[in-house]
Design a protein that fits this description.
Layout: E1 10-14, H1 18-29, E2 33-37, H2 41-58, E3 67-70, E4 81-86, H3 92-105, E5 112-114, H4 121-124, E6 134-139, E7 148-153, H5 159-171, E8 175-179, H6 188-204, H7 210-218, H8 230-237, H9 239-249, H10 261-268, H11 285-314
Helix pairs in contact: 1-2
């Protein structure tokens, strides 16, 4: 295991799929260099151009960093590396194999992180002698655009080193949140899963159509989520009514422990959404193109609002902290 030397101005990404390329772009778009490992030769051919295209979309005004594509972890030049992010497919054995190799190859003081969206950090780090430097670092698609990233502590993760990882993310323009206990789904996916479970339970029970569920979310509480998270919004609207309505609604909310009937039927028929041109909705090439363009435009407008608010917040004294 080599010593860590040189200034820290480079990221290391393992995996050159969609998430890996966009995560690499976060470094490059902020003027950092990146080394990205992808064993598949065909994917390597377009990897540099994909990373640079996403990096240009970040629009930091900084010159783009350099992209170096590697075929294997053994080919990495570790000089200047500040952080390693694993972004291979969601397979526990594959991830453990990557971390076993990283533990031997990476400088001993270099943080090692996984972008897994499902496996607990502790489970991935099982068997690692240096599990104290291993963390979850969960990005949301598209990773180079969505500001938030979840930093997850495993049972043996070093909280002090987690502060360093969070600082790197802030330097790269991200909004890190600390998940203090290793739990499946972390924060964002758990909250999102609870909403989707209830939404599909309402469809299954015949209360509403898929289209009306999407409309009520987008044009009611979803519309204001950019302005305030769910708990801040309830402070604004008043907690007395929140408490009263919870007493009425909570007993009837879905507590299903398995996916909805509708979801299981659709997946069982081999339908997965846009990729197969049928899911909750039916798709053709035109509707896919229009939806993707609208989605990207809305995401960018929401990002502009958040960036404007962050700049304003940075210019004023720190406010009061949250209770609890």
């Amino acid at each position: 295991m080599p010593e860590h030397k040189g200034p820290e101005n480079k990221g290391i990404v393992i995996g050159g799929g969609t998430m890996g390329a966009d995560i690499a772009a976060i470094f490059v778009g902020n003027g950092w260099d990146v080394e990205i490992v992808e064993p598949n030769e065909a994917m390597r051919e377009s990897l540099e151009s994909r990373v640079k295209a996403s990096a240009a979309e970040i629009e930091t005004g900084k010159p783009l960093g350099k992209v170096r594509v590697r075929a294997a972890i053994g080919d990495i030049d570790w000089s200047g590396a500040a952080l390693v992010i694993e972004a291979v497919w969601e397979d526990l054995d594959a991830k453990r194999k990557v971390f076993a190799e990283l533990e031997q190859a990476a400088p001993r003081d270099l943080p090692l992180t996984s972008n897994s969206s499902g496996f607990p950090t502790t489970q991935i780090a099982e068997g690692m002698a240096t599990a104290s430097r291993m963390f979850g670092l969960h990005f949301f698609m598209p990773a180079h655009i969505v500001p938030c990233v979840e930093l997850i502590l495993g049972e043996r993760s070093d909280p002090a080193l987690a502060e360093k990882v969070g600082g790197i993310m802030r330097d790269l323009g991200k909004k890190p949140v600390l998940v203090r206990k290793d739990i499946p789904g972390f924060l964002g996916n758990r909250i999102q899963a609870a909403m989707i479970r209830e939404a599909l339970a309402l469809v299954d029970a015949g209360y509403a159509s898929v289209e009306d569920i999407d409309t009520v979310v987008r044009y009611s509480f979803g519309f204001r989520l950019v302005a305030a998270g769910p708990l801040l919004q309830k402070d604004i609207s008043g907690l007395t009514s929140v408490n009263a309505s919870a007493k009425v609604m909570y007993p009837s909310l879905s507590n299903a422990s398995e996916p909805s009937r509708l979801l299981q039927r659709i997946v069982g028929e081999g339908k997965s959404g846009i990729r197969t041109k049928e899911g909750f909705y039916k798709w053709d090439d035109d509707s896919i193109a229009v939806t993707k363009q609208r989605y990207a435009r809305a995401i960018r407008k929401a990002l502009a609002i958040l960036r404007e608010e962050d700049a304003a917040a940075a210019a004023r004294p720190a406010g009061s902290s949250a209770a609890g």
